[in-house]
Design a protein that fits this description.
Layout lengths: L1 E5 L6 E2 L2 H9 L3 H12 L5 H9 L6 H11 L1 E2 L3 H10 L4 E8 H8 L8 E7 L6 E2 L10 H10 L3 E6 L5 H6 L2 E5 L3 H8 L5 E3 L2 H15 L1
Parallel strand pairs: 1-4, 1-7, 4-5, 7-8, 8-9
Antiparallel strand pairs: 2-3, 5-6
Amino acid sequence: MLHVFCDFDGTITEPDTLCFLTERLGAGPEHYRETGRLLRAGALSLREAVARDVGTIRTPFAEAAALLRAHVAVDAGFTPFARWCAANHVPLTILSGGFEEIVELLLRPTGAPVHDVRANRFRPGTWECRFRDDSPHGHDKAAALRAARAAGRRTVLVGDGFSDREPAAVADLVFARRGRSLADWCRARAIACEEFDTFHDVQRGVAERLGAAG
């Protein structure tokens, strides 16, 4: 049985919502770029990087939500892909280093059926991060794939960036958004991945995998 695990920010959405919020409502683009530099250099954990950026936002969530709905797009192929997964009994889990409140805000209007959403949360009424677990990432995505593999499932990861590296290393199949850092990271480590432009590409690839398993 296949189980698809999909990143949210920058994979399902364009742009990355945490980047958008930090640049538009927080400390600005240079702050966000500096966080990225510190993260890649190992000076910050992912948990610390997320808190560093989100901690600069002061705008009420309702105002931020209106901007997100107006300026962040969901890949047009995602909802058809989610419906295809549901019709073919393929569990689809969203694994996000971001926040459930934002995932729900942007996915609920699409009607996309997802098996599960696993992400961090905000303390109600604030931008204070409540991380999903105690790992340096704040949310150890790879743990979900390891558990699925231990249960006998073949795992598919769909992602784009830094938070998808560890789960990519344990997935049976990786789809990496074309031109993003995950694809480069996989190539540098000889991890097989299929690059994609839209979720229509992912659907074709997963369908081929499902057919091969039949």
